[in-house]
Write a structure and sequence with these properties.
Blueprint (H helix, E strand, L loop, with lengths): L19 H12 L4 E4 L6 H12 L4 E6 L6 H19 L2 H11 L4 E6 L6 E6 L5 H16 L4 E6 L12 H10 L4 E7 L2 H8 L10 E4 L5 H8 L7 H10 L4 H12 L8 H14 L1 H9 L3 H13 L6 H6 L4 H13 L4 E3 L2 E3 L3 H8 L3
Parallel strand pairs: 1-6, 1-7, 2-5, 5-6
Antiparallel strand pairs: 3-4, 8-9
Helix pairs in contact: 3-4, 3-5, 8-9, 10-11, 13-15, 13-16
The structure holds adenosine-5'-diphosphate (ADP) and magnesium ion (MG).
């Protein structure tokens, strides 16, 4: 069964909508081999955007993508980069030729065929046991330079903030060195943890001014309406209602639209939107309970206060209502903020995971 509203996978070419301005801006950057830093809350559409850009540029440039969300060492980092290159090569050439190409490119890193036990498809993986981290980095970036003599390269590193987790080397400083000595290569860094990411690119940090910053905003309401009315009998008002309820979070918008789509009744009403939302919130109930339970009592109170009030949370009346001292609330809010469970825009606090925010709002 097919639904035109993907919410837990990347959209295909036909399912991807909106983002015309963002794509235009990115195209202008990569066409001149500039670098970009794309950041936003999670689930807004960063990975989907890069995927769409790469679909368009795949024939024109060498497009390399890696997601480093699960790296735990510097070796993981470089092995992800190497894999991005070998995946790309094995998609372009048949296995034997791909290995040949890679061996011509790399002096020391060896590439071996491997079989995916799920799909039974062959691919190529770098043998990373024999070499040290520095050597592999050098080989990788030398090979990029070599390749960039024949074609423009875009290297996208998703969940880039994870490099801050690696503490035995300064990956940002090392990367700066390689990124500086490039031509014909664009680096696109993507990430969601705003505090870590900004600190990586802030004034005096090694990556300062190494990339043009782009904050990915919510999709346009008009674009969502244009796309969804092709598949649903939905009015602009209902679309707007859904948009406001989701607080513009792309994944949640898509998930609600998906639930509306699989219903028999195709005319969308407020009640249907509310019940879809309720279904989504309940489906996450047990995982949110687990998360909530990891918090101390004061942090639980702080989260409830943020859920209920958003602004003016330190007002006397609020402190009295929840029977908490101002200082205690301040340090609990600080702790939640550090863990990125809450975030702040001007004077307004919010919970960046919109479904979690709605779940918390139901507690109070
Ligand atoms: N422009 C878009 N068109 C259609 N669906 C999208 C679009 N952007 C995001 N999505 C949907 O929203 C979900 C979350 O987007 P994703 O790209 O994973 O966000 P991020 O990388 O910012 O966390 C995706 O699984 C995708 O299905
Ligand atoms: Mg992503």
């Amino acid at each position: 069964m097919y639904s035109p509203f993907p919410y837990d996978r990347l959209p295909s070419k036909d399912e991807f909508f909106g983002r015309a301005k963002e794509l235009e801006k990115l195209e202008a950057l990569v066409d001149y081999s500039n670098n970009a830093l794309i950041f936003s809350k999670r689930r807004m559409g960063k990975s989907s955007l890069i995927h769409a850009l790469f679909e368009k540029y795949d024939k024109k440039y060498i497009c390399l993508y890696t997601d480093i969300f699960d790296i735990t060492s510097k070796e993981d980092f470089i092995s992800n980069l190497l894999k991005a290159l070998s995946n790309h090569t094995s998609k372009k050439f048949e296995l034997k030729n791909a290995i040949k190409k890679l061996s011509q490119l790399f002096k020391r890193v060896r590439f071996e065929p491997t079989i995916d036990t799920n799909t039974l498809e062959y691919s190529i993986k770098p043998n990373i046991i024999s070499l040290g981290f520095e050597e592999m980095m050098e080989e990788f970036f030398n090979s990029l330079n070599e390749l960039s003599k024949t074609s423009k390269i875009i290297l996208a590193i998703d969940e880039f903030q994870q490099i801050a987790k690696i503490t035995d080397v300064n990956l940002d400083a090392i990367l700066r060195k390689y990124i500086q000595n490039r031509s014909n290569i664009s680096y696109i860094f993507l990430g969601s943890k705003r505090h870590i990411l900004t600190s990586l690119f802030e004034y005096k940090a090694p990556l300062y001014e190494m990339a043009t910053h782009m904050e990915l905003q919510a999709l346009n309401l008009e674009d969502i309406f244009e796309y969804s009315k092709k598949y649903l009998d939905i009015s602009f008002e209902m679309c707007e209602y859904l948009y406001l309820k989701s607080d513009g979070e792309t994944k949640l918008i898509q998930q609600i639209l998906h639930l509306l789509y699989i219903q028999k009744e195709k005319t969308v009403s407020k009640e249907q939107i509310n019940s879809a939302l309720k279904e989504i919130i309940s489906s996450k109930d047990s995982s949110y309970r687990l998360l909530f339970d990891t918090l101390g009592n004061n942090q639980k109170i702080a989260l409830k206060i943020v859920g209920k009030y958003k602004s003016g949370i330190f007002a006397q009346a609020v402190l009295e209502e929840f029977n908490i001292k101002k200082q205690t609330l301040q340090s609990s809010v600080e702790a939640l903020f550090k863990n990125e469970l809450i975030d702040k825009n001007d004077d307004r606090y919010f919970i960046p995971d919109r479904v979690f925010e709605l779940w918390v709002e139901r507690l109070v």
